[in-house]
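Teaching note: in complex prediction, the entire set of molecules is handled at once rather than each chain in isolation. The prompt given to students was simply: 'Predict the structure of this complex.' The entities are:
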Amino acid sequence: MKTKKHNGIGHTSEVTFWLMTAVAYLFALTVRYYWVGWAEHYPEFFWHGTLMINTNDGYFWGEGARDILAGFHQPHDLSPVTEPLSKLTAWLVRVAPWSLEEVMLWLPAVMGSLIVIPVMLIARELKQEIMGFVAALLAGIAWSYYNRTMVGYYDTDMLTVVWPSLILWAIVRAHLRKEKWMPLAVALLMLLYWNWYPSAAPLNLAFVLAVLLYTLLFERKTLYHYRLLAFMTIALSSAPVWVLVVALSALGIWFWKQRGFKEHLYALGASLLLFAVWGGLEPVWYQVKGYLLREGAQDGLNLHYFAVTKTVREAGRIPFELFANRISGSVGVFALSVVGYVMLAWRYRVMWLALPMVGLGFLALNGGLRFTVYAVPICALGFGYLAVWIAEYVSAFSGQKRRILFYLLIALFVPTALFPNIEHIKAYKVPTVLNREEVTVLDRLRRLAKREDYVLTWWDYGYPVRFYADVKTLIDGGKHSGDVNFPVSYALSRPQVASANMARLDVEFTERAYAKGEEGDYLGRMMRAYKAQDPDRFLARLQDKISLPAKTRDVYYYLPLRMLDIFPTVCAFSNIDLHTGQMRRQPFFIVSDRFKDTPQKLYLGGGIVLNKKNGRIALGQKEIPLASITTVTLDKAGRPRAQTQKLHDGAPLYLIFMRSYGRILLMDRQMFDSAYIQLFVLGRYDPALFEPVIFSPYAAVYKLKR
Ligand code: MG
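The expected output is the structure of the full assembly:
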């Protein structure tokens, strides 16, 4: 690289630096307003006059913040009152004039846009402020980074890339300036990052390994780097806070004086020892313990549940183009960014220390989309460096007008890189998690239900239900393994008697388990209590009256319209052979909203045709008789009124025409008899078991009477 080793044309004054930082921040923030401008036109996205959030998990942190503000919450309601994001949110609501909903909506954009600060700070350490400015403009709005920090994307994602970028800045600065306090700053940033985001540990470890490798390769004789390593190693341990405070203070005092090589090694050794005792060996010890205790953990039932990974899209390889787009907005800019990063690291060796973030980003090629964000700021710096390098190189030929040409070229490169990302942002129109009608139902439920009551619903709605209705739920976005999903899936997909029995059992056994400090495998717990050996025979007993545990609280069913689209998946979790974990026959269930009606025939799409004359359904080559056709209309109160026309006795298929929704459902007997279809779609309930509480076209709520 034949660039001159002076402070180039890309180096600016301190004032310009801060001005550019402010402009980049405001730019990132302004672009994020685009979504608001779009969403504002939809009244159904609003609640209490504020746009609602667009990520399900946000309601989890929101529940924690709400409970912190209230000053209380219920035991075992899973409210995250100790999580940093919930605490930060509650604090902002207290000190600032915004409501909880407003903070949840705007915080991700305000925090996510902060990514421009570490990017600019890193550039300043290299005296390449113009590079930083180009990179900050790009990083702030790059495709995947935008997706996870847009307005309404209220999740810890808002800082999961900002923290490691700050850590990288501190490491770079420590290497270049060797200030006394910098190793402590690096360690504190690592701890803050880990506290914010529990999955931060691997990236922190990668930073330590990168610094270690760098030291061994290039700076073996620089004592300062061993000091840095000692501080960073302590930040890797999961020791209690007081131990960390003592250890970091001790290191600080130890290095207050000039120390020799040996004394640096002692400090590093002590840090490693602390790491080994607290945290370092923990995962290893955990494995050993698990191995030794495995025999005792057997309970003889050995139930095989449905693995959630079967329904989550395989985290497989992604196409290269999508990968590149998500990091830089386009394949071209991505390629230039990679070239630029290599040149950058070539000129400023310390930038090799960004490799942990680049590597994590590149894991996306094999491990799923969500990792790409980590590569965004580094690739943006790479692009910025290449842009400045080319502009500097070309403008060097133009003598007097050098500066003008330089800025002209930069002004040309920047829009080229930003354009595809802005196009993406304009096309990325995400709806809110719930619509106003659904929230209205949950808000009415909040006034009816007590905070200790349970709401039975699918896990997708767990967090929002808890946030708006202030109740407990059985499963949610973080608690949805096969064993806890089984009873809920069973209650939704079986006839009303079995459903009611299972709902009561699941709620009471969940609370009993919590009281013992345990959770999970609730079916196994029920079977042990009822002295049952075979799961199928136990489940058969639920079809009838059985003696249920004493009722400790009320149970409500929340049955939303949007579950119709995922109902087969909901059912899959309990349509399983518990002896082997194998799927049983898939239930038959089809939703059609693009049907065509003619006097003789009804075309449902996909080659499915109802012959109205003989009441038979043509399914490809086969003709199957229809048991009945049920027409459902909603009355003024939004309550379904169902009328059934019987066709062929004992026939396997049932057709439901949801007139008010313009939808036709075709299903087998099990689906037709399921509590969800009977209670929500048809509005038919056994008054001995259920009491209808709220009806709306978007959701129904029933109270369990057992
Ligand atoms: Mg609660």
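Point out the following to students. Residues 1-6, 294-298, 309-315 have pLDDT under 50 and may be disordered. The longest strand covers residues 622-634.
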